């Protein structure tokens, strides 16, 4: 029997398997290192950082809904300086590629941050142009031209692999994906959360202080899968699929739909061992189906 | 600190009042490391609905047997209450920072103040406090006589137990804050002459904790509070459970320093650290 390899190379980022810790759910990696061996992940995408520290949104920030959760954290983070000086040196001690997720409320902030992070030993950057929990006139990733301009500018200041994370809250996500690719993105990741809300009928108030928040968890999986399927047919760059993945079966669905790798978010909260279980599950599936490498599965939907 | 995700068998899960249950299971990994005030993140369902774990404080430790005392407040705890002896239970812990319960030898008296299900973590604290102190006062507040929890357990530890009920069906007719007021006022002069200091540990509903805060601020008594918040990760990664805390010296440089995570920095805080108007 041939050797089975889970290695992948996404936009120049070499990973030992296609299972990535998704941004926002894994902190800066260090929190979970007390509980699991974070080296099992193919890569870790850190929680969004912005140029300046952010205090985030008022409480309550999370509410559980049927098969999922809504969050309105509001990108609370200690800012670029603390990330570079305190978080990153510890993270780099692990043998796993680190991808920094960055965001900002202006184009210039993304550019400045990407520039700051270019020589910090990171494996890549993920542009969060799709967080529903911050205030500005619409999300960057809700408009193809805005996305193109932003990615283009960031592309000019960094040679790091550039992943653009897209929002599902659009009429046609393939247009935004194409704009990202045209502007020089190396990969696309999708989906960020779906905008939703929940109401307490006794108090007659929204359950989130911010009224609306981002839906994640198994509830969003069919939507995410459909979007990965659509986008991967329209772009040549790799797609990292995410949205409600809980098991290896879920992951394989995303790969078959066209994803080159998958990211695990909300599932980490429920089962911190999800990543390891998915890796084992993918291996078993590959054996049973005579697949030797991950790219044998990617896009093999009949 | 090492955190474990263990899958164990439930030893017992029994109803102890109209809506409260006590569950036990064995976990050497957690039991030998846990401190009073720390909590567990417990999976209540085998399906995706409800999805998230439930943070529940540790109520007792005996040898390697861990006890939790919890109130059924929704579907998650409802499902937990249906589990029976021999059923599997999936637990992450120990999580968070517990109580700082080291007493200054011979000059500190602990008072434990629990409102409703807030009494749960205070019993484990009393278990550990008995190792260094024989003069523990426990104030228990409940809505009525049927909902008073743990009175016999505390008495078995030789604690001095006082009770309040909202309807006067047992103990004094009032709240646990009224009980605390009585402890603080007359004792104050006596404590002073004997050079004794009180150390208060409290847990309960937020309105009660606010009143405790006002009271202990007035008398300047050292107090620690255990807070409850909805959580997603329970481990300090998601920033879902933050609370506003008093101005940190570093906050001019980084205003996020004025926000703490209940799961990682807490659930136990110095009562003065919390911005109570914001909770």
Give a brief outline of the structure.
The complex is a heterodimer of chains A (302) and B (279). Chain A is of the alpha/beta class.
- Give the second-level CATH assignment, the architecture of chain A: Alpha-Beta Barrel
The CATH superfamily label of the largest domain in chain B reads: Nucleotide-binding domain of ferredoxin-NADP reductase (FNR) module
Number of helices of chain A: 8
Give the distance, in angstroms, between the N- and C-terminal Cα atoms of chain A: 25 Å
Number of DSSP strands of chain A? 16
Share of residues in helices of chain A: 25-40%
Which residues of chain A form runs of ≥5 with pLDDT under 50?
none
Question: Which series of helices and strands of chain A comes N to C?
Answer: EEEEEEHEHEHEHEEEEEHEHEHH
| Distance from first to last alpha carbon of chain B | 28 Å
Instruction: Count every beta strand of chain B, where a strand is a DSSP E run of 2 or more residues.
Output: 16
| Adjacency order of strands in the biggest sheet of chain B | 4-3-7-1-2-6-5
What fraction strand of chain B? 25-35%
Description of the molecule:
The complex is a heterodimer of chains A (302) and B (279). Chain A contains 8 helices and 16 strands. By secondary structure, chain A is an alpha/beta fold. Chain A has one domain: Aldolase class I (TIM Barrel). In chain A, the strands form 4 sheets. Chain A has an 8-stranded parallel barrel with strand order 3-4-7-8-9-10-15-16, surrounded by 5 helices. Chain A has a 4-stranded antiparallel sheet with strand order 5-6-14-11, with no helix packed on it. In chain A, a hairpin with a 4-residue loop joins strand 12 and strand 13. Chain A is globular and about 55 Å long. Chain B is of the alpha/beta class. Chain B folds into 2 domains: 92 residues, Translation factors (Elongation Factor Tu (Ef-tu), domain 3, Beta Barrel), CATH 2.40.30.10; 121 residues, Nucleotide-binding domain of ferredoxin-NADP reductase (FNR) module (Rossmann fold, 3-Layer(aba) Sandwich), CATH 3.40.50.80. In chain B, strands 4-3-7-1-2-6-5 form a 7-stranded antiparallel sheet. A 7-stranded mixed sheet of chain B has the order 11-10-9-8-12-13-16, with helices on both faces. In chain B, helix 5 packs parallel to helix 7. The longest helix of chain B is centred in the last third of the chain and has 14 residues. The radius of gyration of chain B is 19 Å and the shape is globular. The two termini of chain B are 28 Å apart. At the A-B interface, strand 5, strand 6 and helix 7 of A face loops of B.
């Amino acid at each position: 029997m041939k050797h089975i390899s889970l290695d992948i190379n996404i936009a120049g980022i070499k990973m030992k398997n296609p299972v990535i810790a998704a941004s926002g759910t894994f902190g800066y990696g260090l929190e979970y290192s007390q509980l699991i061996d974070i080296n099992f992940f193919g890569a870790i995408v850190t929680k969004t950082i912005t140029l300046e520290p952010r205090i985030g949104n008022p409480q309550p920030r999370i509410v559980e809904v049927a098969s999922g959760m809504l969050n309105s954290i509001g990108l609370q983070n200690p800012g670029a300086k603390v990330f570079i000086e305190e978080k990153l040196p510890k993270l780099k001690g692990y043998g796993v590629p680190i991808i920094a997720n960055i965001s900002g409320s202006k184009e210039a902030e993304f550019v400045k941050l990407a520039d700051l992070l270019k020589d910090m030993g990171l494996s890549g950057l993920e542009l969060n142009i799709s967080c529903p929990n911050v205030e500005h006139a619409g999300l960057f990733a809700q408009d193809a031209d805005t996305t193109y301009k932003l990615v283009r500018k960031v592309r000019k200041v960094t040679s790091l692999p550039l992943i653009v994370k897209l929002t599902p809250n659009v009429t046609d996500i393939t247009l935004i994906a194409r704009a990202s690719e045209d502007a020089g993105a190396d990969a696309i990741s999708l989906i960020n959360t779906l905008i939703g809300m929940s109401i307490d009928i006794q108090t007659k108030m929204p359950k989130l202080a911010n009224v609306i928040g981002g839906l994640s968890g198994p509830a969003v999986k069919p939507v995410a899968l459909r979007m990965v399927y659509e986008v991967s047919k329209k772009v040549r760059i790799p797609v990292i699929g995410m949205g409600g993945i809980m098991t290896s079966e879920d992951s394989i669905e995303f790969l078959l739909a066209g994803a080159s790798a998958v990211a695990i978010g909300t599932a980490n909260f429920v089962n911190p061992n999800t990543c390891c279980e998915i890796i084992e599950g993918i291996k078993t599936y590959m054996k049973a189906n005579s697949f030797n490498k991950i790219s044998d599965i990617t896009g093999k939907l009949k | 600190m090492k955190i474990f995700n263990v899958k164990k068998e439930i030893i017992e899960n029994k109803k102890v009042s109209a809506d409260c249950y006590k569950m036990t299971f064995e976990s050497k990994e957690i039991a030998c490391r846990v401190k009073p005030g720390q909590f567990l993140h417990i999976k209540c369902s085998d399906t995706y609905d409800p999805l998230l774990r439930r943070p529940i404080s540790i109520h007792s430790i005996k040898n390697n047997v861990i006890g939790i005392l919890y109130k059924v407040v929704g579907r998650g705890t409802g499902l937990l209450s249906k589990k029976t002896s021999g059923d599997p239970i999936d637990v992450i812990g120990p999580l968070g920072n517990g109580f700082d319960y080291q007493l200054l030898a011979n000059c500190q008296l602990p008072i434990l103040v629990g409102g409703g299900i807030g009494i749960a973590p205070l019993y484990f604290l009393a278990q550990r406090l008995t190792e260094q102190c024989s003069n523990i006062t426990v104030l228990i507040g409940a809505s009525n006589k049927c909902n008073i929890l743990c009175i016999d357990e505390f008495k078995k530890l030789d604690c001095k137990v006082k009770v309040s009920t909202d309807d006067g069906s047992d103990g004094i007719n009032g709240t646990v804050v009224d009980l605390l007021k009585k402890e603080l006022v007359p004792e104050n002069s006596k404590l002073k002459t004997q050079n004794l200091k009180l150390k208060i540990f409290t847990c309960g509903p937020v309105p009660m904790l606010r009143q405790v805060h006002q009271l202990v601020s007035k008398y300047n008594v050292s107090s620690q509070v255990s807070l409850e918040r909805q959580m997603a990760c329970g481990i300090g990664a998601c920033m879902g459970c933050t609370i506003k805390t008093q101005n940190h010296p570093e906050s001019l440089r980084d205003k996020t320093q004025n926000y703490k995570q209940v799961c990682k920095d807490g659930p136990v805080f110095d009562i003065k650290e919390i911005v109570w108007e914001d909770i």
